[in-house]
């Protein structure tokens, strides 16, 4: 993800304690279901694939509920306040 290391490390530290609970947002629920369905299909096709590969694949899953439509672009926007370019992430 094209974000300075300091941003990534800060975010990683803040995720050291994580809580998961119910949501009332149908948009969040639909997005999570879409990602879970995609992950299930990916794992069926690649039973020996690793979680990092899966994570990278999910980052390139289009999500209509996101402002940028791509999870990796949304993360860049949230972390830096700058919308990434419209072309690929490389």
What would you say this structure looks like, in words?
The radius of gyration is 14 Å and the shape is globular. The longest helix is centred in the middle third of the chain and has 20 residues, at 26-45. With 90 residues, it is mostly helical. It is 54% helix and 0% strand.
Features:
90 residues; mainly alpha; 4 helices; globular
Radius of gyration: 14 Å
Order of helices and strands: HHHH
Query: Average pLDDT, to the nearest integer?
Result: 85
* Poorly predicted tracts of residues: none
Task: Please identify the structural class as seen in this structure.
Answer: mainly alpha
Strand content: under 5%
Distance between the termini: 9 Å
The tally of helices reads: 4
Global geometry: globular
Q: What is the helical fraction, as a range of percent?
A: 40-55%
Q: Brief overview, please?
A:
The protein has 90 residues and is mostly helical.
Which SSEs are present, and which pair or pack?
Elements: H1 5-14, H2 26-45, H3 51-59, H4 71-80
